[in-house]
Every structure is written in C-alpha cells, then in structure tokens.
Specification:
The structure is a homodimer. By secondary structure, chain A is an alpha/beta fold. Chain A has twelve helices and 19 strands. Chain A has a seven-stranded mixed β-sheet with strand order 6-5-14-15-16-13-17, with helices on both faces. The first copy, chain A, has a six-stranded mixed β-sheet with strand order 8-2-1-12-19-18, with helices on both faces. Chain A has a three-stranded antiparallel β-sheet with strand order 3-7-4. In chain A, helix 1 runs parallel beside helix 4 and helix 9 crosses helix 12. The longest helix of chain A is centred in the last third of the chain and has 34 residues. Chain A is globular, with a radius of gyration of 23 Å. The N and C termini of chain A lie far apart (79 Å). The interface between A and B is medium-sized, with 12 and 12 residues. Strand 13 of chain A pairs antiparallel with strand 13 of chain B.
C-alpha cells in the first residue's frame, strides 16, 4: 500500500503544505483545522504577522513547484539594518553572495495560498472548525468536534499527522502515555506587534530590502517589510521588571519611552500610543519533546518543536519536516514504521538544534549586533566565505542558505571556529614575516 | 490573619505531613485525597514499597514531635552492601560516624501513621475519594469530585497546597496558564518490585542493617529491610533493548537470567519466577517546573519536583518543603504573598539540585559502587571527614545527614573537591619528604 490515507490535524502553514505535498505524492489526505476557512478570512494587507522564508522553506516549496510563485509574494531582505539610539543606522549583509537573501512574507497570505493549492488537489478533503478532542496514537484514530454543529466525528487513517502547533492537542494526547519526554520553557521576553504604514504613494518609509533592528541590549524592536510599502514591527520586551510592557500605562508614558529609546519610531507610526495601549503582548515559548512518532501518529512543525522566532526558522524548520517526512514515506513505500522511525531519527536532533540556535540568536539580535567587534567579526566571516567558499561557511549562512541539517551545521561551525583560532594567528604571523622580509 | 484556612490536594506522605504541621501551627486544614482512606486499607507487612528516611525527613517530623515514634517503625541502614556476580559481598559505610544512618521504612505504614496523627487534630478535616478536577490558582479555589456519590464540591481557602504527586492535577491546571516552565524526562530504566520473605523465625536472611545492591554496570537490583525480617527488592532494568524486563517471557528465561546475573537471589525468593511474570514494571520520571507559586496556590513535594529514587531523597525533600513552607508562613504571619515567594526562592533551586543528584546517583549505584577505585575514594572521603570534621564533609553526608540546602551542598562539595585536588598531592609530597628526611 504505497498510497496511504492520511489524517492531518492542523491547517496552518505546515499542515497545509503537508496536505498539498502528500496529495502530490499520491496519498489521500483529510485535513481538520480548528479555525474557520482562511479563504473566507479578511487578510488585511500588511496587518498580519510576517515571517522570513529562506532556503529550507523554499526547498520544500520547490518540491511542489511553488517556489517561484511564493517568491513573487515576498520582499527580499539582504541584511540587517540596525537603528541606533542616536538615529544612526548600520547595515550588515547576511551574505557576501548578493543572491543569498531571506524573504519577508505575510503569514496569513502564505497560509491562504497553501490552503488554496491544497484544496485544488483532487485527493484532498478540507474540514474547518474541527477541533481535535481525542487521539488514539497507536491506531491512528482521531476525534474532532465540529464547532458549527457540535457533532463529533471519529476518523482513522494509515497515518495521523499532528501539525496543530505549539499547543498541539495531538501532542497533548501523546503526553498522557508513558515515556514521553517533554519540556516547555518560556522566554523572559514577550512580543507586541505594531503596524508601520507605507509612505505616501506606497513608498517604503525606511529601507525596503532589509530586516530592521533597534537593538537596545536587553530589549529590542524589529520591523519586516510588506510588499505594499508598509512594515510589520515587533517589540521584544521583558515580561516583567525593568522595561516590561505593563510599565507603560498611558499615552504620555508610551510617547516618552519611545522618544528616549526608539527616537525614529514615532515618526513611522502616527498612532503609536493607541496601537501600543490597545495591544496585548504575547509570550514566547520553546517546546521540545520525544518521541515524535507513536504508533501511526507523527508530529511535524511547531507541535514537535516550537521555537522562538529569532533565527527566522520556525516555518522553515516545519516545512523541512514535511519535505523529509514525504521523502521517507517515498523511500519506504511498503514499510510505514520504518519510514516514521527514519523521519524521527533525522529530525529530533535537528529540532533541538534549531531551538538552541533561536534562543542564542535572541541575545545576538538584541545586543551583539550593536557592537563594533561583532560587526567586524561578521565582516571577517563574510570575507572568509568569499575567499574560501569551499572550506568556510558561516553558521548563519548554513542555517539560512543551505539544507544542511541544523545539528550538522552547528558541528561544522564549531570545527571551523577551532580551525580559525589556530589558523588566524598563524596567518598573521606569516603576513608579519613576509612584511619584515620585504622591508629588508 | 495569622490563622489561615488551608486546602490541601493530596493525602500522600507530603500532604498528610503538611496537614498535621499546619494544624499544629494553628491553621484550619481541609485535605482532599483521590484514593480511599488509607486507615481502612490493608497494608500487608513488608509487601509495600519502602523508603529511606534520613535527616531532612526526620527534622521535619521532629517539628511535630514524631521523630522518635517514626524511628521505632524503621530499620537503620548503616551502609551499602554490594553483592557481586560471584556471590562475594562488600560493605561500604555511609559515614564514619556510626550514628549517621538512613532508615528503611514502609511507605504505606508511614502514610497511615501520618494520616492518623492528622485526623487526631481538631482543626483538620479529611476527605477521601475526592479527585481534584479544576483549580483557580490565583483565587485559591479548587473543585473536587466525590468518587463515591459523583457530586462535585468547590472549596476555597486562604491557601491551596498542591501535594498531589508527580502527576499533580493542581500543577496541570497551572500549566494551562501562561509562563509556566515545565519538563518531564523519563529515565531509560524502569523498576519492578520483588518480595524477599523473612527466614524462619522472622530472621533476616541477609544483613539486616544495610541497603543491599547488586550493581551490574547497566542495571541493578536493590533490597531494603522491613522490620519483620523480610526485604523489599527492586529491579532497575532498561525499558527497552538489551536487558529489558520484557525480554524475559517465561519462568525458564527468568530462572536462567537470575542464575547468570544475580546468582544469590533465587535462594532468597522462592517464587521468583511467578513474582516476576505477574508484575508490571513501572517507569521513572524527573519532573521540574517553575513557578511553584501562582496566586494563592503553592506546590510541595513530587508535584513540584518528582525525582528518581536513587538518592533516597524524594520523601525527604517533600518533608523539607513542608517544614520550610510552615516556617515561612510563621515568619510572615500577615503577608501570605511574601511567605510564598520566600518559600519559592528557597526551594526551586534545591528541587532542581536534588533532581540532578538523584539522576547522577543512578550511575553511581548501578556501576561505580562495584569499582575498587570508587570504594577506595569513599574510604578516603570518610577518613577526611573523620580527620577534619569541621572542614570536610562528603556530598552524600551533607545530603543525607544534614539540612544544608541541596544546591548549597553541591557548591560546598565542588569547592572541597577543588581544594583536595590541590592539597592531596601536596600532602603526599610532604609525607614523602618527611620519610626521606627520617631515613637520612
């Protein structure tokens, strides 16, 4: 039975791509999503969260022939543009190769696009407003409650995929079973989104092709471009104590705080005070678990590994899960258990690796990027990559611009760093000797 | 309001002690326990799990004047007695001080004793067969379902204590809230209990005053004495793979495996094969979380920090939680929030520390104790403690025979170890010089 009947819980980005890719691979797919049909939702242009899509996400989209179409919806970002407290700006390219960009894209827009593509497949059934209530993981059976009419349906398949996000109901059911390792760890910081409108005539009010960062040591703001000239900004501030969101209680306090810490921002957000006071900050969590496979049930995306957003890899990692799951099902058409075990072996370590990297990048973004030594190091790293493209590749570059497994990328970066620590002083010595020699 | 009305969820060891101690401190206590009344349960002598109680547990019992009574129920264990594969035995004392023992005691017996003592208090109400269904942590409100008549009761207090064990319903409710860090991590090994009957005339068939260990590198058996001459044995074997419980499927396989690895055990357990095949192995989990305090709700014991049993500290740590919670409530009679925050600050770090120590001791018990170098090190450590009692104290000794906070004990042990690494070679040098000098 190489054609399988597959149940997917969750119709977010990862679930929608899974439905589409599995259908293209010849499987029959039924997808159940808790929320309403995103095709009927009004996605206000530029008002939704945006994401950075990079090589891993694009590789998965390429497997279903959608890479180019998606890139047309996205805005390339060539590097980070840092905004100082004194309104100065500094640009730092992501790569020495001008073709290596990450791309800002609307979460809602991409989700709708993928649901539309999945719906167009003959062997895909989509069910909205269906909440996952119970799972028999070993048997691949799930019960969903239809929120419209209150009825429950029990469905079963050869395979049940939990693509239902950080607070996954499928995972919750696995957790009740024995020997399920799990951790959830909240970040000290939460986030709040702010909308930066386009300038007159749809112009971009700040540099279009960059990810903007206002690094302030222990907190920051970022902004990603939308394709209509607007930006989606996000504040990452502490949940409590000094600099917490709740410390600013009225328009005046908001105004003064931004004037002090983000002096160029109020000009970009005319209704800043209102937006700030109307918004509710959200928390950020890292979730890890194991196993990802129990019987006929498998986890993909945030339900298996929710990570903080600071490496721009959440969706990319989820799309990579889907691609590798499909490849493993293809490689083992007659042995589902083998395919799932192989998927798990390939992915769990990498889910943990990108979770660690994302947490580490939080400190890089809010603090290190503002330091001259860090910028020098990045320039040196880009230079090395240009000079020795076959030998040296920065960790950022491997994570964002390659499909090298995350854990492998970390190992390579470590051994490169060790080599540089040996080679760099040697090189300096050789240069010094050469100079002395030439002056003789 | 120094007298508080307090709800306790859970009437196991920690919950029962909490009820008793809080009542003695003048509070009004209502305790709700999921199971039936342990006073009506038949506790088969020697057939229940036993525990090692040591200084921390005894200190807490002393606060309610029960230390001596409890010690009368217990069997002192002066050290570890290792059983080799060749039937040889080696004894290793826990301390150079013959008064420093740990005590084997019946879990069921002690639980019943504490429930009886709590029931005798005027301001304690006990409710059995009440299952915690919902908690409003901030408000200190809990809903319990009476399993006898199906009715639910909602109760509220100045303080709600979650003492409901590793799979705590109270903690489960906290977890749904925001910013609750949590992890559960299963050990590679599970456990199975075996009953070793007393010899004729109620004699102890093996050394009475010891904790017996059969260390086999990657798995082990232990046995603790009961006061009637019997022992409770526990196998700690892998959950899967080589040496897993499920590998032995019939009496013949059980017989041959024990003959190979535990040759002196079959003589001690006449119905070994039957016991083994009738039993279901259980898993072992480490649970950590934070916060332990949300609003008017606080966690104590396993619900806050479930640990593996290899340091014999699970109950001791829970009893210490109870003592320190009571002390903090006493120190801040008019400020509950301050008392709870102070309890949390004093305990969370220590909960994590004993969880780490218990995991580390697993490797010590099943492997290291069988090595001559380890035994030599332990002898050296005991000697140091005897020679420099004011300066040196082994980690085991601080954990088992003092009330030094666990994390502090680890720090002290580390700095002692560093000092020894410097002092020890110096001492050897001085001795060598002295010998050479004296031979001159």
């Amino acid at each position: 039975m190489s054609q399988k009947s597959i149940i997917i819980a969750g119709g977010g980005l990862t679930g929608a791509l899974a439905a589409l890719m599995l259908a293209r691979d010849g499987h029959r797919v039924s997808l159940y999503e808790r929320r309403g049909d995103i095709r009927n939702a009004e996605i206000v242009h530029g008002r939704s969260i945006n994401l950075a899509i990079s090589t891993r996400g694009l590789t998965a989209l390429d497997r279903v022939g959608l890479k180019e179409e998606v890139l047309e919806m996205a805005v390339p970002m060539r590097g980070r543009l840092m905004h100082g407290k004194d309104r100065s700006t500094t640009f730092q390219a992501y790569s020495s190769d001008p073709n290596e960009n990450i791309y800002s894209i609307s979460r809602g827009g991409l989700n709708r696009f993928l649901i539309e593509k999945a719906a167009a497949e003959e062997n895909v059934e989509l069910h909205f407003q269906h909440r996952c209530e119970e799972v028999d993981a070993r048997a691949g059976v799930a019960t969903f409650k239809n929120d419209e009419n209150g009825e429950t349906v029990e469905v079963s398949g050869d395979l049940l995929i939990g693509a239902d996000g950080a607070y996954s109901a499928v995972r919750q059911n696995l957790m009740v079973g024995d020997l399920f390792d799990f951790s959830q760890e909240y970040l000290t910081h939460g986030y709040m989104e702010l909308f930066l409108p386009a300038a007159e005539g749809g112009e971009f009010p700040i540099e279009k092709n960059a990810l903007h960062i206002w690094p302030r040591g222990h907190f920051m703001m970022i902004a990603l471009p939308n394709d209509d000239g607007s930006f989606t900004g996000t504040l990452f501030w502490p949940n409590k104590g000094d600099g917490a969101f709740s410390n600013l209680k009225d328009a005046d306090q908001v105004k003064r705080y931004f004037a002090e810490w983000f002096p160029d921002v109020p000009d970009l957000i005319p209704d800043l005070e209102k937006q700030y006071l109307d918004a509710n900050p959200s928390s950020l969590v890292t979730i890890r678990c194991r196993p990802w496979v129990v019987g006929k049930t498998v986890l993909v995306g945030d339900s298996a590994h929710a990570i903080v957003p600071f490496y721009g890899q959440g969706m990319n990692a989820g799309f990579e899960d889907v691609r590798i799951l499909c490849e493993e099902l293809e490689s083992h058409p007659e042995d589902l258990e083998e395919a799932l075990q192989s998927y798990q072996e390939l992915r769990v370590e990498n889910g943990n690796a990108i979770a660690d990297l994302a947490l580490a990048n939080f400190h890089e973004m809010q603090d290190h990027v503002a330091r001259p030594t860090f910028l020098l190091y990045k320039k040196f790293s880009n230079l090395l990559q240009k000079l020795f493209p076959g030998w040296y590749r920065s960790l950022y570059s491997m994570v964002s611009f390659s499909n090298t497994p995350y854990a492998e990328a970390i190992r390579i970066a470590r051994s490169q760093d060790q080599a540089i620590r040996v080679v760099f002083p040697l090189m300096l010595m050789i240069i010094a000797v050469a100079i002395v020699w030439s002056l003789k």
